[in-house]
């Protein structure tokens, strides 16, 4: 048996759109003769996801990640290339045996009927996937206990909160015990508590049920807590595929130094030193304290920088020093700014 859940081979997607000039005359001309414009949403992309992995498919708006997700699920066919699931199914043909083994949740689209209670949709899923009563009850009880949402089962979906609806959507997606789960912005619009419960549920589903999960999200908390591996997409092409912890190091590997100084003299000393050092990059401080200075240094230079600060400033002149890693949001922003298309794997 293969350990591959899904394999993407030179997958491409090009949409055709039409150019239309403004105004009535433009609409009239386009009615008789349209100018077709091809738009490449996804450029040749290849990667392999193994069974049991939890992978983040990340990128800015318009990067092509949702299009990739739709091609992997079979919702849309690729223009070129191929996507193979479980080493046997061509996803573009949407074989029933493949569809029975996957689940999908899109944060901006509902699968539950808004006028019916969630239990009715769950029962419909039971009938569609031919799930035995005992197996259905056990699976449902397990999912409900993870979310502690049993008392909401018989309430019409439209009367549930956004967080409660998303929890029900996730339960529906894994009731039939899929081996592969696709998630497109599952925590969008949720408050911090509901988003935390969703993340805990997904982590549990991945570990307890062994569900291979592919996630797209703009929330760095989702990525940090769930994804051990990330595939970074920009302008329709993959620019990074590897462990999350290695992303910052491959880009720049910076540490942020925030110094709170005791007097103008110490501030001037450090400021002049930072300004004259090509290995340091002074940053705009978010602190209201005028004696706070923030700058960045590479991981390689961090020990040397720390020693130099201690030499320049006596202990009485340094009120506080914080050395921190850059936030994941900063890392992603730097990647998109400096490497719009180029791969960043070493």
If you had to describe this structure to a student in words, what would you say it looks like?
This protein has two domains: 212 residues, P-loop containing nucleotide triphosphate hydrolases (Rossmann fold); 72 residues, 2-Layer Sandwich (Alpha-Beta Plaits), CATH 3.30.70.1710. Helix 7 links the parallel strand 7 and strand 8. The protein has 346 residues and is of the alpha/beta class. The strands form three sheets. It has a six-stranded mixed β-sheet, sandwiched between helices.
How much of the sequence lies in strands comes to 25-35%
SSE class: alpha/beta
CATH architecture of the largest domain: 3-Layer(aba) Sandwich
Question: Given the C-alpha coordinates, what overall shape results?
Answer: globular
Extended strand count = 14
**Order of strands in the sheet with the most strands?**
6-7-8-3-9-10
- Approximately how much helix is present in the residues? 25-40%
How far apart are the first and last residues' alpha carbons, in Å? 32 Å
CATH topology name of the largest domain, in short, is Rossmann fold
Taking all Cα atoms into account, the compactness measure Rg is 25 Å
Number of helical stretches of at least 4 residues = 12
Full CATH superfamily name of the largest domain:
P-loop containing nucleotide triphosphate hydrolases
What order do the SSEs take from the amino end to the carboxyl end, as H and E? EHEEHEEHEHHHEHEHEEHEHEEHEH
**So what's the CATH class of the largest domain?**
Alpha Beta
